[in-house]
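Inputs:
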Amino acid sequence: MVMVKVFGYLIDIVGWTNKSIDVKNSIKLYDLLEAILRDNDLRRILQLVNDGQVKILSNGVEIKLNDWVFPSDEIAIIPLPSGG
Amino acid sequence: MSSSICIDPPPFLERECFQGRIIDGLSYEQLFLTLEWLSKTTASEGSGGLSVFMGFVKGVIENSKVLKLIYTSYEPYASIMLDKIAKSYSLNPNLYGVIILHTNGVALPGSPTLFVAVSGKTRKDSLDVVKEVVERVKKEPPIFKLEVREDGEYWILGDGKRVARPK
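Outputs:
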């Protein structure tokens, strides 16, 4: 099972804060996103990643769309931080 | 750095001179306890002053009354990053301690959001580091802020850009 968490205004784009997806073996991040996001949302998120406005983390470390995701990984899709 | 300092911290802190963490509902009482503890514990090493930054929730933004801010942190990574920022100064021989506390959850106008306290050999040492730490906290840890105002709700991006939530 892979847990996917979403933060900030991205919640309003995808319509949820977290989802878990059953992953038996490894899966590419892009394929994982394609499985859990609606087409329009996927396109928008990918554009934001491309523009440097969004990062995707696996277990706290930034990963790329071509990287592998493994069962029990936690994925976070995060916008620019706004601490302080 | 002597291992005999930074002992007996308040219950919400670790026994370390350089540390950072997220605290749910950060309170003024916790800040005062931190100030007192850091002052007394680093005085024994020769420190004579703390430089402090405290951020708090504004009551008015863009002519609209602020009802509250809601902070969400991606834990444990937000606390890990705050701690990493504080510890990145631990090898500076002119510093005795750096404490970074950031709130999480609902914060009302006037209540503290970010607290940075630096104990150093000189005023210049500690003032320069406080400024640097505040800038890093605004950019590095995964902390996110929703502004709830009379005229609507706004996600804050980076250092000031706002995205209105759909009504």
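Remarks. Chain A touches chain B at residues 5, 7-9, 12, 53, 57, 60, 76, 78-84 (CB under 8 Å). The longest strand of chain A covers residues 74-79.
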